[in-house]
Amino acid sequence: MSDLLHTDAAELSGLLADKQLSARELTQASLEQIERVDSEVKAFLHVDADRALASAEAIDARRMAGEELGPLAGIPLAMKDIFTMTGAPTTCGSRILEGWVPPYNSTITDKVLAAGIVVLGKTNMDEFAMGSSTENSGYFTTHNPWDLDRIPGGSGGGSAAALAAFEAPLALGTDTGGSIRQPAAVTATVGVKPTYGATSRYGVVAMASSLDTPGPCARTVLDAALLHQVIAGWDPRDSTSINAAVPDVVAAAKHAEVKGLKIAVVRELGGDGYAPGVLQRFNEALAVLAELGAEITEVSCPNFDYALSAYYLIMPSEVSSNLARFDAMRYGLRVGDDGVNSVEDVMNLTRGAGFGAEVKRRIIIGTYALSSGYYDAYYGSAQKVRTLITQDFDAAFASADVLVSPTTPTTAFKIGERVDDPLAMYKADLCTIPSNLAGNCAISVPVGLSPDDGLPVGFQIMAPAMADDRLYRVGAALEQALTDRWGGPLLNQLVASPAGAYLSGGAR
């Protein structure tokens, strides 16, 4: 079973199509792995084995009947618990939605199910996607399979951990300020933030509506491209959805070639505050791209220095608006409804009990930033900075095909290390936030283990809006060159450790 768990989705797709493997067998292997290791990894909030097996058996029956199926039909997937799905709880990692089962599917859920992908269950996350470590979940902290004493990133740490622990070959996440890319970086997986509007937000519980971007999580660039192709596309139910053709990301991942491409390092995303081992691996990856024929240059994006400050005004402002709907009146938790308390008292008691500390912090900041007399000084000014950051990107892309940086300044930090220091926690997203503010696309690919601590390092590639195929072109070329150099996938180095062998299905 160990070999099956380590096999990437693209190869599994071929085995399923050739009927050398059944979707039920593959799903059962994933479920057994979850049963074996998730008590320690804690990637999943909800697993529905019966539903997953029934879905797999239905795919097998369709395949045996001769029906032509998509490339990911029968492949198991872990879904971040922010996507609505009928018959399954959607909690967003919050106690205020504990036990809530939505009456509708998100558009992306519908696309995944229509593609024949088998949903194993819902993964843990920072509450309402607010966090960089999955320590803000209202239920429990997820652990990094590389070191169970360390964080798996956030907010989508559950999806990244499920991939790294070989519990699923594919996963879904959302990226508001780095919530797909940062977990990918610290778990040696691949995470993609598509162009804003290229993937539908309908049925994705809103955190910050102008920033939230659903995207694919995987263990290889090609696997991410295959999932990207399934979930992307125009959706009339999402007013921010882009009505344009989806770039051929799968072809880009399969035929990666960087010779002649101009790849620019962003000067502001590196230097002081970045771990030496992270910068070492980043520079080594740059050298590999140069060896492959890319032209490496440098650009300055001066307004990126203000991205973190602008983000932490814009995002909380949108949070304060979006989370007003959780009022104990329509669904979810209700506290103090004893016939004596007023409606206002019930709302206050419920929100006090149901929301965690980080959610409350951001609601308060956002409400203040939007309040009379402060709107222009804070929220309005932050939006002006956002425009300047977008202009920095436009200027940089005028002379470069893609921009690159480390994905995050450090490797995975220890659980509990930053919980009392919000600013230190927020700095984990220094490199990822600019792309969310501007709306362009970005990917994180693993580029080795830091010599400082032996933990994974991520390499971020950024491309213009609706040029998502460039991410896959560069990411796949770098991945292949490094895989050849390592003698196999980086995750093999995790498997070689005692804990890794256990997590991958071997003996502990």
Overview of the molecule:
The chain has 508 residues and is α/β, with parallel strands linked by helices. The protein has a single domain (2-306, 384-503), classed as Amidase signature (AS) enzymes, CATH 3.90.1300. The protein has 19 helices and 11 strands. The chain has helices spanning 2-6, 9-17, 23-41, 49-64, 107-114, 157-164, 181-187, 221-231, 249-254, 276-291, 307-322, 343-354, 357-370, 376-397, 422-426, 433-438, 468-486, 491-495, 498-503, and strands spanning 44-47, 76-80, 118-123, 170-175, 190-193, 213-218, 262-266, 295-299, 402-406, 441-449, 456-463. An 11-stranded mixed beta sheet has the order 1-3-2-4-6-5-10-11-9-7-8, with helices on both faces. A hairpin with a 6-residue loop joins strand 10 (441-449) and strand 11 (456-463). Helix 3 runs antiparallel to helix 4 (49-64), helix 11 (307-322) crosses helix 13 and helix 11 (307-322) packs across helix 14 (376-397). The longest helix has 22 residues, at 376-397. It is globular and about 65 Å long. The mean pLDDT is 96.
